What we know:
Layout: H1 8-11, H2 24-35, E1 43-47, E2 54-62, E3 68-76, E4 83-89, H3 104-107, E5 111-115, H4 157-174, E6 178-188, H5 190-201, E7 207-211, H6 218-224, H7 230-239, H8 244-252, H9 256-260, E8 266-272, H10 280-289, E9 294-299, H11 308-323
Parallel strand pairs: 4-5, 4-6, 6-7, 7-8, 8-9
Antiparallel strand pairs: 1-2, 2-3, 3-5
Helix pairs in contact: 4-5
Amino acid sequence: MAFFDLPLEQLVAYRPQPEVAPDFDDFWTRTLQQARTHDLNAQFQPVDEGLKLVEIYDVTFSGYGGQPVKGWFVLPKDRSGPLPCVVEYIGYGGGRGFGFDFLLWANAGYASLRMDTRGQGSAWGAPGDTPDLAVDGTSNFYPGFMTQGILSPETYYYRRLFTDAARAVEAARSHPAVDRGRIAVTGSSQGGGISIAAAALFPDVQAVLPDVPFLCHYRRAVSIVDSMPYGEITNFLKVQRDRADQVFYTLSYFDGVNFAARTTAAALYSVGLMDTVCPPSTVYAAYNHHQGPKDIRVYAFNHHEGGGSHHTREKLRFLDGFWGGVASVT
């Protein structure tokens, strides 16, 4: 794949006018208030996987509608006090997998919570364990999720998922081993888009690290690429020809551009300039609207894999510099 989007000098300045509904903030305030009428009921069940240097916990907490959401919580075993915590969200179609799949942040001295993605976990990697009870109480599904309930913001799939993400931060903060004042959120692709939303919906988040984020600037994305998952929206509108205005109105409530414009957390983004899944201009649209201190790593010759392990190293350095090291690990 060659370069196909705007040249870098234009991407750096690309700041499109957001499409945002007048009641965007009220909608999300009401959504979170409704979720918080249910007890968070965060539970951390120890799991013995034979590992000697970390503690692994099977997590359950109440997400959207009070429905149970699963996750993994991992801690370094040797610690002397509350730790900063990294909450991580998963890419499109993936599930939480196993606790021993998720050891990076604990090995860097942080607490970490990896949230399962409701309804997903049947497309790649290890399976998910959180059915979407609004659709089916017993199973997880193969994509797509992009058009589930898309004719109204009240019923759209990502209303439930973004609410789960905000409550995952609350669950992480509830554990006594976590320093409640030092929370970061991160994820790649869908997980990156979720992290932008979580940082806006939970303003106490200090840092957000979205890798090649999905769920940003939908209208441009579907106009310049036909790859999945954005292609699910295109295919829907090929048949539902008279629904385009309604669809993009719904999507405006879930656009990373609008969440970034409401986020003051320190940010480290990444972008692949040959990425045909999450086009560079959609990433820059969110990045350039981000309101907090920010930086971006550009991987000029990469597709949706972005910076891979190179960028993992960048994230570790970013958090180490941001938090000044983790003094409470022995």
